[in-house]
Here is the input.
Amino acid sequence: MSHPKPESKPESKSDPKPHYAGHRQRLRDRFAKAGAEGIADYELMELLLFRAIPRRDVKPLAKSLIDQFGSFGAAIAADPARLSETEGVTENVISEFKIVQAAALKLSQAKIMDRPAISSWAALIDYCNAAMAYNDTEQFRILFLDRKNVLIADEVQQKGTIDHTPVYPREVVKRALELSASSFILVHNHPSGDPTPSQADIDMTRQIIESAKPLGISVHDHLVIGKGSHVSFKTLGLI
Here is the structure.
């Protein structure tokens, strides 16, 4: 004769909470008091992971992501396909990362739009770094300026491969005319991380300059964005 299985007891209030429960609240409290400056990068990553993974110790995953991608920013900006290859990274995690990345770009862009590019140069560089430094493929964007050098538009013109982006000078100039821009800043990234301009970069820039000049449109600068550094054609004497 079989005996009925004993009923499982409901969890009581005295049952111990997971060890990470108190850690989460302590970290949130510390962040509330000290902000991002008062916590390590992996702890900031933990705070993001708390939302996406509500019932698990996420410290190992936070540290793993930063180790794998090299920095907090690089992990947040990483391609979703690469992120999904990391054990423990779910669709919810990727979604949280992309929301944070989009918000950061919006905040950076707000500091430069409708303002003189020269006086906002540091903020402009910060924005370009945030938008392009961690891309796995080349991207070519144009920052259009009016007669007072105020930034009136920021557009991605082309996306390419890991080491090449097709750029068509006539299309660049045509768009400048459509926006009534007096000048523009060319920007592209080098996924390799080395921002040194290639001969192809130099030749392409000269072609755009020659196409724009007869129409009274000038190229203010060409920035090449690497990982953690950039170069300016104007500073190098190439413009």
User: Anything to note?
Assistant: The radius of gyration is 24 Å. The first strand starts at residue 139 and ends at 145. The mean pLDDT is 86.
